Amino acid sequence: MMFTLAKDLLNIPVITSVTLAILAAIAKKYVHFSRRDFFSRSPLEQIEAVKWLRQSKPPSSNPLDVAEQQFRLLSLGLHRDRDLSYRLVAFHSSHSQTHIQSLKAVLRWPGLYDINDGKIYPHSHLKWSLPLMLIFILTLMGSEIIKSYSREDVSQFIFFLTVILATLIPWFWMLSCTLKIFGISKKLNTYTPPVIDAETDKEDFSSIINNKYP
Fold it and tell me: CB–CB of 155/8 below 8 Å?
């Protein structure tokens, strides 16, 4: 049985390789997150991040100043765009915890949207690319499942069933994150954060980050 399964795996159809290659390319394009986001950090870390954000200013035209600020924001678990980072933190302080997962998705999936003046604009092509991706997976991989089932080839059937489940899991994950970003973008873009004077008491703005963390 093991020999037969190994032999079948070595004879994987080209379509399987193409499917996996496409999913890998999509993941590489959209997933840039390899650190804990701001909302997943401890209260003390969040307070330190808020203190720095309060004192920060829009970067000058010097590209080195821009790069330094972006690296600082990323190290704090925020977005590299200062205005968006400020908007996210201020929005979180003014609303209930029901939006926390959507705010995390914004920080974890920056490849799913564009930014202009601190506002989020989800990529419009996701409305049709995700459904087409699902059709591609179900049609091509599903046909292989049906063929192997009709031939009563158990090893091939199990293999292709495993492959299609392995591809659907990240697809549903991407769909979930996309829907979260589409939903929260409307609220964020209409939200006007308060203007905080950098010279005021620095503890006041830090106090908006309370202990209501998931």
Answer: yes
Mean pLDDT for the stretch of residues 58-85: 87
Written as six digits, the tokens of 149 are: 């089932």
Q: Which two tokens stand for residue 36?
A: 């804990």
Write the pLDDT tens digit of every residue in 181-200: 999 999 999 998 877 654 44
Cβ pair 41, 3 in contact under 8 A: no
Q: Both tokens of residue 210?
A: 């309370």
Euclidean distance between CA atoms 179 and 66, whole angstroms: 31
Q: With contact defined as beta carbons under 8 Å apart, do 151 and 70 qualify? A: no
Strands 113-116 vs 119-122: parallel, antiparallel or unpaired: antiparallel
pLDDT digits (tens, 9 = 90+) for 148-178: 777 777 777 788 788 888 888 888 888 998 9
Q: From the centroid of its chain, how far is CA 184?
A: 13
Residue 201 tokens read as 């008491």
Q: What is the pLDDT of residue 126?
A: 84
Cβ count near 138 (within 10 Å): 14
Contacts for 143 with CB less than 8 Å, ≥ 6 apart: none
Whether 178 and 122 have beta carbons less than 8 Å apart is answered as: yes
pLDDT in tens, 38-51: 998 889 999 999 99
Contact 51, 180 (CB under 8 A): no
**How many whole angstroms separate alpha carbon 66 and alpha carbon 189?**
23
What's the number of CA atoms in the CB half-sphere (13 Å) around residue 12? 15
* Whole-angstrom distance, CA of residue 167 vs CA of residue 94: 38
